[in-house]
Amino acid sequence: MNMKKLLYSILIASSMLSMNSCINDLNTQPLNENDMSSDQAYDGSLESFEKGLAYIYGSLSLVSQNDPGSSDISVPDAGQSDLLRQYVILNEASADGFKCIWGDSYLSGIQYNIWSASDNEAIIAVYTRCMVTVTRVNEFLIKTDGSSTAGVEGLRAEARVMRAFAYYLLMDLYGNPPFATEENIAGPMPTQIGRPALFAWIENELKELASSESSLPAVGQVMYPRVNKGVAQALLARMYLNAEVYTGTARWADAKAAATATIGMGYSLCPNYEELFLQDNGENLNSQNELIFAVAYDRDHTQSWGGTTHLVSGSMYDAASSGVAVELGLPEGTLVNRERWNGYHVSAEYVADNFELQDVSWKDKAGVGYNRATSDRRAFLYNIGHTKEFDNTSTQSGWVCWKYTSRDSKGNVYSSGDYTNFSSTDFPVIRLAEMYMVYAEAQTRLDGGITTDATAMNYVKALRDRAGLDMPSSINLDFLLKERACEFMWEGQRRTDLIRYGYFTSMSFPWPMKGNIPNGKVALDSWRTIYPIIQTEINENPNLVQNPGY
User: Fold this and answer.
1) What global pTM score does this model have?
2) Is-contact 486 354, C-beta < 8 A?
């Protein structure tokens, strides 16, 4: 059995660990009288501790201990309670590269930049899931503290990486969340320590975990998709690149050093960009070699209407899915998506501003609307029969995206009634390509905004070679931002990138429907760079102060 399936089997078994809790009281008694308490579940064996660790991993991908149609947090639609789905919504739909025509109020609030502190499913789901992860880790660290069981120190280190990642998301998205450690389990309500102090805490945790003295497994010591020293080092690199946003002090040299350290840990680029997003990206060694940190999904064992299922199903409709299949040379009648919800779109402006496409046409004809053979290979787009301008009331406007489909690297297409509706594509949280781009941007900023540094140039060239594009003689910051727009489209990074560049709230960087203005030529309030602490937390914990603007 491969590690991915082993992890799933542990996740299923670990449903006996009922650690569902209120965020504020951090109580870990079972909600169901038939469930075991953590005292009963942890019997001191390595197996019980492995199940507890798997339960922590599951907080990133599962919506409940039952089925994908029921949620264990207070979000009405279970699919909308998934952490990764709503993480993508908060970071992509709030920016320029992801549009949705559905009338869901939470989506409208995010994509028109008019969200408030009142209930919003995306804001609630990501916040709550992250705090649940923190709670589970804190409980796990208490139960494993002092254990002499062989192997437990490595499990504790993995759990700490997961807690640091949850706090990173909270810091990036919510600025100043409550800060809870083991001492808050059945103890005092957590307080806020401020964004710079939280950054420093996460930094110290990750530096310690990435060190040679740490019990955290090195790259290759535990099987995919478990975290290792590479994940800790890569998350440091991402944090340092955005340090000026989080703390007011730039850390470009540290970002470059952390990226260099990660790159040197034995990862390699997947030769074919498309394989990184296919249904077997977690089993395909080509893609595994590039995936530093991924959240695993499986159509049979970890089913979710969130995860990558919403990315596979959300964008396409029957004619588009069939048209793409024809473009790929698949048998007549093939659909490349198991389900086709026809909601997610990409504006024509985003595509034109960032992707190098050849022979783009907005007229009805065969193909996908441009010449794929001579265009950026990272473009997976379709516009046949569409109006060019994005229309939030039209199912056929702008472009639709098929970066995520129901295909695998062996040529199988899991889109017939013989297969479940769920996706097995693992979500790529951090890839080696990001470390290349972190290095290049950090070096460019150290060089005053433009560079010809050989190492930075070679890293960018490797990505553009894979994309089938020529390399310029020098690179500058705006070029790198466009490169990131293509390389990491719909991977949950766009909002963070635009904030780092100072473009997210700027009137000089418009996009369709920004600030609920059709042409997007508007300045957003500065406080829009972070989301509100969810209102139930503010109401229930007197130690908390709401973020400015809300």
Assistant:
1) 0.94
2) yes
Using only C-alpha atoms, the chain has a radius of gyration, in whole angstroms, of: 22
Asked if residue 335 lies in contact with residue 322, where contact means CB atoms within 8 angstroms, the answer is: yes
- At 113 the three-state DSSP class reads coil
Q: What is the token pair recorded at 24?
A: 């504020």
Residues facing residue 371 across a β-bridge: 358
Tokens 């700490």 sit on residue = 160
Counting residues of the chain whose pLDDT is more than 70, the rounded percentage is 90
d(CA 463, CA 385): 32
Higher pLDDT, 29 or 429: 429
pLDDT digit string, tens, across residues 248-279? 999 999 999 999 999 999 999 999 999 999 99
Give the angle 71-72-75 at the CA atoms, nearest 5°. Answer: 60
Q: Which two tokens stand for residue 479?
A: 């070029």
CA distance 482 to 350: 10
Torsion sign across C-alpha atoms 62, 87, 313, 467: negative
Using 50, 70 and 90 to split pLDDT, how confident is the model at 64? low
What integer pLDDT is reported at residue 185 of this predicted model? 87
As a whole number of angstroms, the distance between CA 468 and CA 216 comes to: 38
Beta bridge mates, 17: 36
Structure tokens belonging to residue 148: 């002499």
pLDDT score at 306: 83
Residue 1 confidence (pLDDT): 37
Residue 73 banded pLDDT, cuts 50, 70, 90 = low
The neighbour count for residue 74, using CB atoms within 10 Å, is 13
SS3 call for 517: coil
Alpha-carbon distance 451 to 448, whole Å? Answer: 8
Q: Is the dihedral of CA 339, 341, 343, 348 positive or negative?
A: positive
Record the tokens describing residue 176, joined without a space: 């100043």
DSSP track, 472-489: -SSEEHHHHHHHHHHHTT
Q: Which of helix, strand or coil describes residue 465? A: helix
Indicate the residue type of 188.
P
Give start and end residues of each alpha helix (H) in 453-534: 454-467, 477-487, 494-500
DSSP-assigned letter for residue 90: I
Task: Using the CB atoms, write b or e for 290-306: b if 16+ within 10 Å.
Answer: bbbbbbbbbbebbbbbb
Query: Are the CB atoms for 191 and 37 separated by under 8 Å?
Result: no
Write out pLDDT tens, residues 470-514. Answer: 999 999 999 999 999 999 999 999 999 999 999 999 999 999 999
Bridge-based pairing state of the strands 291-295 and 344-345: unpaired
Six-digit token pair at 496? 């963070």
What confidence score (pLDDT) does residue 61 get? Answer: 86
**What one-character-per-residue DSSP string does 38-81 give?**
HHHH--SSHHHHHHHHHHHHHTTT-S-SS-TT--SSS-SSGGGG
